[in-house]
Design a protein that fits this description.
The structure holds two protein chains of two kinds. By secondary structure, chain A is α+β, with helices and mostly antiparallel strands. Chain A has two domains: 1-51, no CATH class; 53-298, Sulfite Oxidase, Chain A, domain 2 (Alpha-Beta Complex), CATH 3.90.420.10. Chain A contains eight helices and twelve strands. In chain A, strands 3, 4, 7, 8, 9, 11 and 12 form a seven-stranded mixed β-sheet that branches. In chain A, a hairpin with a 2-residue loop joins strand 7 (197-202) and strand 8. By secondary structure, chain B is mainly alpha-helical. Helix content of chain B is 82%, strand content 0%. Chain B has one domain. In chain B, helix 2 packs antiparallel against helix 8 and helix 8 (154-168) packs antiparallel against helix 9 (174-195). Chain B is globular and about 50 Å long. Classes of the chains: A alpha+beta, B mainly alpha. Chain A binds chain B through residues 62, 64-65, 68-69, 73, 77, 79-80, 130, 132, 177-178, 248-249, 264, 266-269, 271, 274, 276-277, 279-281, and chain B through 37-39, 41-42, 99, 102, 107, 110-111, 114-117, 167-168, 170-172, 174. Bound molecules: protoporphyrin IX containing FE. Protoporphyrin IX containing FE binds at residues 42, 45-46, 49-50, 52-53, 56, 89, 92-93, 96, 100, 118, 121-122, 124-125, 128, 161, 164-165, 168 of chain B.
């Protein structure tokens, strides 16, 4: 008997994605020629209508690979574990607690949090600290939008994030591989940078649980583990948070964790990366290729020390 | 325990030969059919390393099993199993050289010098090579007592193999701990057998 795995895509869905890709190509050309508005052709989702100047035009990683090859230790430490186990996570209703140095702290229902924002598409490179990378068409909105609404005080120097902590929904949390809950942090200027995204979807669809539903961070110039998933708490703080991987091993993982080919992980080189879906490795770029937008955040800092 | 010569050399040994080849066939097939997930090359390198280590431990399990089951014939399977361990480890190394580093020798040299887990793996393969080379009947005769001494190297090699895995792991050391436990049992049985029996 053939048992179909629940995360397998149907023929239809696969077609959807090639259509998605082609549509994007068309829109890009159309936008380039300035004919999108007058072409009269049906352009489907409003959210994907405009192409963000921050988006890359590199070949997208397959949806199947993005949704089956994940690091999300809350659902197991194997790459394929999250896709198998994450169905136990309940993402609706979802609350996000906002606290600390801001004028509008409180417990927000996700829907209320999302109501005033307009979700857009951003195609970013995503580089994991382990040496692999993807190109992911995220849906989301700038974190800066949310921060402004919360009106941080002058004491707010950092933004701290926390993943949901509930071993019943996240069975991987029954084992103390990391110090749960998973926490991450950004300096305020990093958080306010227009590249920094609150992700809500991939390929025009809502995030799947294994990719950090319903709300996650996307910081494309930093190693993947900075892009914390399934966010349940955000805190504005005066002091620099200690992120989970730094807590686990501070010699190997730092606070900044900017993609940097010149600073090796103690156990492997970061000079190259394997783009999922390609055979040959490619060279890793400083700040994952986003130096133009973010290098100035770190002028005067020794990036070898502040890795 | 003893089985007939016919059953041993016509059934048991050939079956084991095929069985130990299956992982290699699986990874070959998996690459060809693109059935190894999002990162097939990593899956191949890791899978070959896993099987190299497993079969290495199987080699070490033969003499305890022989004692446990009182089954002398088992020893005649050991060379084949040992050579299979070498086969998988060499393929694992080739996988690393080829589709992890694409024969970038400078980078490889740097890796061997700078990354303890690679250093340890490399030492293990280098030490394993003379054992594979001297596994023929002629060599066993020619080396006599020295052969036994030389093949004691399998003990540090297997420890290096487990250490290599341990140091490679990012955080979750469950698997290397299991291998280390098995190795401890295999070594413990030998010590017990030598000193307390
Ligand atoms: C007796 C020798 C060796 C044994 C028994 C061995 C075994 C293993 C095992 C069990 C793993 C872990 C696989 C997993 O995660 O499931 C591994 C990983 C690895 N080994 Fe070896 N290995 C040996 C020699 C070497 C050598 C000589 C090299 C390279 C010079 C090497 C390179 C690697 C690499 C790069 C990985 C990690 C793969 C990754 O991160 O994807 N190994 N090895």
């Amino acid at each position: 008997m053939l048992i179909k795995k629940n995360n397998e895509l149907s023929e239809n869905e696969v077609t959807d994605f090639s259509v998605y890709q082609n549509r994007r190509k068309f829109m890009k050309t159309a936008a380039g020629l300035g004919i999108a508005a007058v072409s009269g052709l049906p352009i489907i989702e409003a959210s994907a209508k405009t192409i963000s100047p921050y988006s890359t035009d590199e070949k997208l990683t397959d949806y199947k690979d993005i949704t089956t090859y994940c690091n999300f230790y809350e659902f197991g430490t194997g790459k394929e574990d999250p896709a198998k186990n994450a169905h136990t996570l309940v993402t609706s209703p979802w609350d996000v607690v906002i606290e600390g140095e801001c004028e509008n702290p409180g417990k927000y229902n996700l829907e209320d949090l999302l109501k005033p924002v307009s979700v857009e598409e951003r195609i970013y490179r995503f580089r994991c600290v382990e040496g692999w990378s993807m190109v992911i068409p995220w849906m989301g909105f700038p974190l800066a939008d949310l921060i402004k609404r919360m009106q941080p005080t002058s004491k707010a120097k950092y933004v701290y994030f926390e993943t949901l902590h509930d071993p019943k929904q996240m069975p991987g949390q029954k084992r103390a591989v990391l110090d749960w809950p998973y926490v991450e942090g950004l300096r305020m200027d990093e958080a306010m940078n227009p590249l920094t995204l609150m992700g809500t979807g991939i390929y025009g669809k809502d995030l799947l649980n294994q990719n950090g539903a319903p709300l996650r961070l996307v910081v494309p110039w930093k190693y993947g583990f900075k892009s914390i998933k399934s966010i349940a708490k955000i805190r504005f703080s005066e002091t620099q948070p200690v992120n989970s991987w730094q807590k686990a091993n501070k010699n190997e993982y730092g606070f900044f964790s900017n993609v940097n080919p010149d600073v090796s992980h103690p156990r492997w080189s970061q000079r190259k990366e394997r783009r999922i879906g390609q055979f040959r490795k490619i060279k890793t770029q400083p700040f994952n290729g986003y130096g133009e937008q973010v290098a100035s955040l770190y002028t005067g800092m020794d990036l070898k020390k502040n890795f | 325990m003893k089985i007939s010569e016919y059953k041993f050399s016509r059934i048991l040994k050939p079956s084991l030969f095929v069985l130990l080849l299956l992982p290699a066939i699986y990874y070959g097939w998996g690459v060809w059919q693109d059935a190894l997930g999002a990162n097939p090359l990593e899956a191949v390198i890791r899978g070959l390393g896993d099987w190299g280590l497993r079969i290495l431990l199987l080699t070490l399990a033969i003499s305890p099993l022989r004692r446990l089951l009182n089954w002398a014939q088992l020893l005649r399977l050991r060379r084949m199993i040992g050579l299979y361990a070498y086969f998988y480890v060499v393929l694992h190394l080739l996988g690393y050289l080829w589709f992890d580093q694409f024969f970038d020798w400078e980078e490889i040299w740097f890796d061997i010098l700078e990354r303890p887990f690679i250093t340890v793996g490399m030492v293990a393969v280098i030490l394993l090579t003379p054992l594979a080379v001297t596994s023929t009947k002629g060599m066993i005769k020619r080396l006599g007592k020295k052969w036994k001494k030389l093949h004691m190297l399998i003990y540090p090699i297997s420890m290096l193999g487990v250490l290599h895995f341990w140091w490679m792991v990012k955080l979750d050391i469950t698997e290397p701990v299991i291998y280390a436990a098995i190795l401890t049992i295999l070594f413990g049985e030998r010590l017990f057998n030598k000193y307390f029996k």
